[in-house]
Hints:
The chain is α/β, with parallel strands linked by helices. It is 39% helix and 11% strand. The chain contains 64 helices and 47 strands. The chain has a seven-stranded parallel β-sheet with strand order 15-20-14-21-22-13-23. The longest helix is centred in the middle third of the chain and has 49 residues, at 911-959. The chain is globular.
Amino acid sequence: MDRLTFRSDRRGTHNGQYENGQDEHGHGHGHGQRGRGRGGLQGDRVREQEVRRRAQSQGHSQRNADRQREGARGGGRGGHRGGGAERLRLGGARNEQVMRAGAAGTGARRGGHNGDRREGRDENKDGTDRKLGYKTLEDLSKQEPSVVAITLSSNPGFRVLLGETPMRPDLVQLICLVVSKAFTSRTDRGTLQHLANIIKESKFLSITLLHYVGAMMSDSNQTRRAQFPQHLEYITAILLEVLSIFPASSVNTVNMLVTLLEASINTLRASGVAFLPKVEEKMETLKVLIAHLQERSRKGTLRTDKDTYGLLTNADDNEGEEQEDFRNIPLYPTPEEFHQNHKPFLRPNLTSQRYTNTHLYLDTHFRLLREDFVRPLREGIQQLLQNQMAMGRNDNPLKMKRLDDIRVYFATQLVVPKCTQTGIAYIVQFDVQPLKFVRWQNSKRLLFGSLVCLSYDNFESFLFATVTDRDPKYLEKGQVQITFTEESRVKLARIQTDQLFLMVETTAYFEAYRYVLEGLKEQTEDDLPFQRYIVECSTDMLPPAYLQRRAVYDLSHVAKPEHIKSIRPFNSLDIDAWPDMEELGLDESQMKAFQLALTKELAIIQGPPGTGKTYVGLKIAQALLTNTDLWNNNNSAPMLVVCYTNHALDQFLEGIHKFLKDGIVRVGGRSNSEILKKFNLRELSHSQHFKRTLPSHLRTAFNQIYRQLCEEERAMKSQSLKLECSLKGVMRETFLQKFMLERHWTNLNSPPAPLMEDGFEMWRKKTPNLMIEWLGLGSTHFQQRESETANGNETEEAVEEEEDLIEIEEEAELIQAERMIEDGWTIGPIAGRDDKKKRNMEEDVREVEELMLAMNLDNVDVRAEQKEEEWKVQPRQRKKMKQKVKQELGKSSAMTDQEEENVFDVWSLNLKDRWRLYRLWVSRYRIEVRTKALESEEAYQNAVDRMTDVKRQENLHVLREATVIGMTTTGAAKFRKALQEVRPCLVIVEEAAEVLEAHTITTLSRACQHLILIGDHQQLRPSATVFELAKNFNLEMSMFERLVNMGLPYVRLNYQHRMRPDIARLLTPHIYSALENHPSVFEYENIKGLNTNLFFLEHNHLEEEIKDGRSHQNIYEAKFVVALCRYLLLQEYKPEQITILTTYTGQLHCLRKQMPASDFSGVKVHVVDKYQGEENDIILLSLVRSNPQGKVGFLNIPNRVCVALSRAKKGLYCIGNSEILSRVELWSNIFHTLREKEQIGRALTLCCQNHPNRQIKASKADDFKDAPEGGCTQPCQFRLDCGHVCTRACHPYDQEHKEFKCTKKCEKILCDEGHKCTLTCHEKCPKKCLVKVEKIIPQCQHLQMVPCHQNPGTFICEEPCLKLLPCGHRCDSVCGSSCSTRCIVTVIFNLRCGHNQQGPCFYKTSKEQPECRVRCKHQLKCGHDCGGTCSKCYQGRFHSPCSRRCERLLICSHKCTEPCTRDCPPCRKPCENCCVHSECKRECGQSCAPCIEPCNWQCPHQTCSKLCHEPCDRPPCTEPCRKTLKCGHPCIGLCGDKCPTKCRICDHDDVLEIFFGTEDEPDARFIQLEDCGHIFESTAMDQWMSEVHQGPEEQQVAIKLKECPRCKTPIRKNLRYGSHVNRSLAEIEMVKKKINGRESDIEEKRRILKKQWVEGLNICQKYVQKEDNEIQEKLEKTYLTASDLWILENKIDFLIRVAKLLKVEKEKMLVTDGCKFRQDVNQFMSWLNNTSQRFTDQQVFDLQRELQRLNLLAELNVRCHIADTKDQMREMQSEVQEIRHALEMPGQFTEQDQLNVKEALKSLDERFPATGLGISEEERKMIVSAMRMPPGHWHKCPNGHVYVITECGGANQRSKCPDCKASIGGENHTLDSGNEVATEMDGSRHSAWSEANNLLNFDPREF
């Protein structure tokens, strides 16, 4: 029975990709898997029409209603307006940064597909989506499946329609018909997945279909009952699709439907209704699949919709691989292939006999091609695994060991997800240290399309991905962009985000393999054209089928211009009727080729070098294209042109364009042709014509999907930007605060005293970025370190000098150019806006970089933020700093969590450990951001897959209108599915002999009637990755060569038009038996400066091997060839006329290093293999190979030799070791030919053109020094126009010296003093004399060297300044500059704190003072000495926190990490408690919720019946484990326990190491602790667990987890000891609750604190707003401990008191006093808000003392304010100064100081009463009490004398003050001018003459 594979989904990243489940023809892709065919659902027009007729009869009225609605609704405005901006919150000093959303918000309005915007979306008036109408569905059912699929999936109205209940039966039937038809589209896989998801989530599946199927049983209408079998076939087809795509989430719903379907079918069958066998087969398949999935669900292995399921087994599985159908072999290698040594079954490509059948032919090529890319990966990984076993997994030498078949990249990690046109890609970071030798520009490593395999578990599992973008600049940093395969993306989602992988790369270009292998699988035997020749190798060539109908050709358009009118149409099958070859402009062999191509359905044309095969090919193409009526009979089938390279394709299509101005489409590839630019598929798909002709369903789908893409891209953008920026430099510490331990953040913000330099502290402002200083990148640190390592970095600068060398088309770039098919294809609708989108993106990146990075490596000026006054980093030092940071960021090593815990002072770490700790913080930051990004990735990928389907349909729309389609072979493989639909009937393959046969096969479609192969199998052959397959299995033989060898008719072109005869002699007869020279090649002139046009220079200098790759270089050859090239350039040859060829890529770089761009710009340097089809006047050929072993490599391959020797037209000069080459017969024959004319030797003869009798024998590069200017060593002696003689040696160029520049000294006089011009003769003389002479500077009378023309008064004197500064020290400036204002002479001065200290002299007169560095040494309340300094402890007012570590053992088994605590707070580490079901995610100190899942501890002998958190009710099993380890030996563990990873035999020493003493017993069984991995003998370990062990630490903690006897790791995860663990955890939980406090008590305390804060809310919101928000947030936290509440209580108390002080400052202090007071309060607030603030005894004491001081200072300031209003300040000045001095003295404000200040204030009160009333406070109170007046009745006159107004308190009469006679009172409740309320009497602020005014005198809270 066949085995079915159900796909995880239908998405595909690339055009035409099928999943392993099935292909277009139903062929399975898995092991022994065969998908189901599509015949049951496709093309049954009769049944579709019946359903439509049935639907019409039942739904006429409803349809009319729908039609009316559709007619009236009009077009809604479509297109996503997008837009605005997105706000990215990033924290730090700048909390927000507004960023543009770039192209993500542009919407469909940006063009391309918005020709009809109304089709974007149909909406009702209320803005909701309008449902799809009946008529629309009916029309849709007549369309092609792909149209149906795209329309349904992209139209929101379809989702609305499916959500309607109830639904008419006829509408249900129509929906089923349309949906089932959509599912027959096998190309639109992403679209079908989306459609299946819409159906799965709809009410249609869960409700409507259930009702419809259930109603079938009771329907008595015989006509309808007869139609039910058809409807049920559609329903079962839909259910199969939904279930196969979404197995996990749809199985239950489908199961209900299948149960109901089965009942309905049985009922209908019983009543006589007949069912088709297909319905029953599908029902059976559904039931089997559902049963399988339900079984998976019961076992817990049914996880997600992304799992792939295999059903049933193949009965033929054991018959051997040779019997397996190749279509069942998976494309990707399987894990089994990596871990076993069997070789797959292979057959050689038959080159001397025919194939027996087409299946065997396809099978042979599939297996060979797959093996070609799988074997290097398979054998490389097997070798890697063997090395690991031999050396140990942790052995570093593995990194140094060379692997032949793969390239290995260590410590690979996914760092940044990227939105690309193919979906989600990832930037990965790998360890670049082992690859420092790689030159990435030319390396073939990690090229576009290369396959990489990533594994983190020794290749037990792995992920596949392809390289989708490579930039050498980023590769040097260890970064490359990859895209995972669909199956690997599913696996990736289950792997943790910070996982490190081992990445291996195979050398094969996988993309080309993949498309061709898929094509071979889908190629059916019946559909392969030309089997008669390709398979059966028949030599009887037939005419094309179209010629058998009509064979009349008109070749007038192909003829020479003078013969156009004389040529008439003729019968092409009549050989005598053809025009003469002269009329057509062809030679004899070209004419034969031309006739063969036009009259045979398979034509093979061989074109040796220079014979004009492209010319003939274009003649053939022109003949066919001007006679299209013959072969294109109303079928619109285009001609397909396929070439191996982009260059050849451009050349051929440009030739076609000369006679065909329109109708060309060039698909993909990087074209350098401006002519063909407008014919590029991408350009055409954005043209106005394309917009007008594009079907509406594609426009609608594009706009709808594009909107979704923009939304998802926006969602991902901010996260990706953060991830990207985190790699570009050093992050600001504010972004990493969340990921540091709290004490580390505190410590980081408390740097040590600034560095000392030359005995005094450098004057500098505070560093703007702590992270820069901490990492040693600040100016002081780096300057010091840079001087220490000055000798270590000199090699770095030498690299950059390569910028002056010539540009060479690197082989890596050339290979990539051929691989990249859709060059620049983007999702955006208008290609012209791509640059703008890119600019916006770059701007967004810059903004985020500025926000996040303290140092950005991408900036040219890599300078950490600096102030102008600071020391500046010089350019050279900046470069070294950049190199240092780049090196550190590229490392993968980081601190472990445990190492981090052990760090207390981050400033005390060495630089290496600081970077390791920094990398740990960054990795945590990245993990958090990466987790957020994952949410949007899948949605974006789904949208891209659907967009790919739409783009594929758009491309088809363009291709179907083409006359000629041009592709490279790689492009043809990728667009294979499109070609099958376009069905070109005529195919021309240029360079056919370079193309693997499998590539040619997949290019052909069944419709092909005419195939023309043009090439030369004696030049380059196809290249295979595996040498054995190429040689022993004939994989390197093209179809072209195989058919020639099999004797099929072909024509070889015999006249060469390129090489001069001497050069052509090297090919004939050694390579070609006959090759005629065209007369034109006899006309070439001789090469100037040499005595021969052809020469082979012999030598025996040895080659060198290149470290990266298998290439070679020969420095001797490189130097000689470069010297010869320079010599030829001096003969006045243009650089474009010379090409240097070499046979090895390693030699390219060697040549480039010898060729400065100034001398060689324009000279082409190529590898031979990349120069086929090219030519040049002069070729210099370096053959490289020269070694003691006599190895010649591929120089023994005639094909490559042919290409190398046939590129030159006029001159060919080779250099090589003839001794080893002559061992090859071909080379020996060539040397014999060369010796006939003495064109080979040890030295090349150079001839001077000016002196013919002088010759030089050049055998090495230095010999060319005898012709320094290209002539000889004689002087030139030509007299120049200036009168001087030419100084050069003899030179053949510039004979008239028009370009020569005289370099002798100029003799012209410039000034009256007789000074001569100092420039050279050819330079323009200066207008002013620059000669320096002695002059006296008038200002200082110093003698200085001044330019002759300059006035000495304007010259700055450079003598040292002799002036003294005000301090008495000498100025350090020069005489002509202003004197310095800051003296930096080191002196001793007194600080305000009373200490003496050395420092720069300017501090003596500066208001600023440096920090005092004297140690504090105060004994803190905890008993320890203070570790701070005088400045850090603020002269003793607020001491630095105690730095002693607590390190008590907590109840959770962690050590307390808080500094010096009296009562340890709850543990803040992540909780480590976990079980097999789940893990606790809380902090360790919080209570854990017990797991109530059933206990999993069971074995065949016993089972536990308790819950997971309860002690188990079964004893441990003592039976031995019966399992076998991976090594093949028996397990050493016990039944029911996890098998130990060690083996008694393989790991003998580790297992039998004596610890308890029972390990060496023969029947000993072992237990491995999962927490630490240590292994112990079971009986001894059981005994250990049951005993009570108390050491010194254990005595401190009576309750704790049992620990590993070896390493003391707590035991948490072991099932065997689950009872012990659960009992301990239960006890620990009780202790946690006691430590944290009872929940009720905590909530009560929280309520009290909230109330207290609310009472002070008004004043706090006004004066401490920031802290107010923080307090409210903390009070609302869900989890608070007693310790947290203690901190909050203290903080609230202090904040309320501070707020009251600030209120007093604002209302009752003078401005000057208030400003200084506010500074003191701000200082107090900084102490209060310090992150290290825990309100320890010392901290509370310091805060209280400071608050007392501030209270008294506030009281003094208020008195001063009152005195100022009464003009008493002068009288009390001395007392105020004395009190203020006591309050502002350095040091802590003691209790004695407090008493002294209070006494002084009391004395001040007695002398100057605070009220200003002349009475004491007691007297004032007595008077107010006696008068019994409400507030607002006391007033005062303009001079301050108090009086009272009775009754209402308002002034209604006027009087005189008894003391000063001033006017008092007033009229109409208005006081006279100068009178006011006497606030000092009763505190009122308003007169009490009205109720409203009176109320203002009271606090509202008093009511």
